[in-house]
Amino acid sequence: MNRMTGQTLVELAACVFFSGIVLTMAIPMLSSAVQRNQQTQSTNQMLGAMQYARSSAVFRNKTIALCSGNKACSQEKLWQKHLLVFDDTNQNGQLDAGETLLQQFHIANDHSWHWTNFRKRTFLQFVSDGTTQALNGTFTLCYRDTPTKQIVINLAGRTRVQPPSSDAQCR
Q1: Which residues of the chain have pLDDT under 50?
Q2: What is the pLDDT, as a whole number, of residue 27?
Q3: pLDDT of residue 56
Q4: What is 43-162's CATH number, 3.55.40.10, 3.40.50.10860, 3.40.50.1370, 2.30.30.30?
Q5: 27 half-sphere exposure, CB direction, 13 A CA radius
Q6: Rounded to two decimals, what is the model's pTM?
Q7: Residues 60-82: pLDDT tens digits?
Q8: What is the pLDDT of residue 1?
Q9: Dihedral sign, Cα of residue 87, residue 92, residue 96, residue 98
Q10: SS3 letters across the chain
Q11: Given 102, 127, 163, 166, which residue has the most CB atoms within 10 angstroms?
C-alpha cells in the first residue's frame, strides 16, 4: 500500500499563524530602522554640504555660502527641499547674477533643517580661512515637525552632531 506524506491543514494553519505573528513584530522594527537610516543620511548629507562649502572657501580663497532654495536663496530659517552652495562674491548671502552655483543638494521628503544663529541670518558663509564669519549656530533636523538630531557649528567652522536639545524647534 502506498503511503501519502504531507502536511495537514491544521499544520499549515499553525505555520501561517506563527508567520503572521513574527511579521507583525518585525514590521514596526523595520519601519523604525528605515527612519533612523533616513535621519542618518540627512545628517551626513548636511555635514557633507557644509564641509564642501568650507573646503571650497579655503581652496578657492573666496567666500562661499550655503542656503536653502531651488534657484535662489529663501529667506526662511526652515530649510526644505534644496540646499545651494555658491560663490558669494558680494558676501550678501544671496545667489545673485554673476555668482557661481557650485553644488545643489536635495533634502529628503518629510525632512527639513531649522537654522538658528546669533546673527539671525538665513544663510551660512565660510570665508577663505574656513571660519564661519561669525555665523556659528545650530541646525536642527526635523522629521515631520519633530526634532531628531542637531548639528552645531562653531566660529572656526567645525561641526558636531548631538541629540536634539530640550529647546530645539522645527518652526
Answers
A1: none
A2: 75
A3: 94
A4: 3.55.40.10
A5: 6
A6: 0.81
A7: 999 999 999 888 888 888 888 89
A8: 63
A9: negative
A10: CCCCCCCCHHHHHHHHHHHHHHHHHHHHHHHHHHHHHHHHHHHHHHHHHHHHHHHHHHHHCCCEEEEECCCCCCCCCEECCEEEEEECCCCCCCCCCCCCEEEEEECCCCEEEEEEECCCCCEEEECCCCCCCCCCEEEEEEECCEEEEEEEECCCCCEEEECCCCCCCCC
A11: 127
Say how many C-beta atoms besides its own lie within 10 A of residue 19's C-beta: 10
Model pLDDT, residue 62 = 93
Provide the grid cell at 143: 522629521
d(C-alpha 123, C-alpha 65), whole Å: 7
Q: Residue 46's closest CA among 123, 96, 105, 126? A: 105
pLDDT value for 5: 73
| d(C-alpha 4, C-alpha 26), whole Å | 36
pLDDT at site 124: 92
Domain coordinates in residue numbering, the chain? 43-162
Which of 43, 37, 48 is CA-nearest to residue 164?
Answer: 43
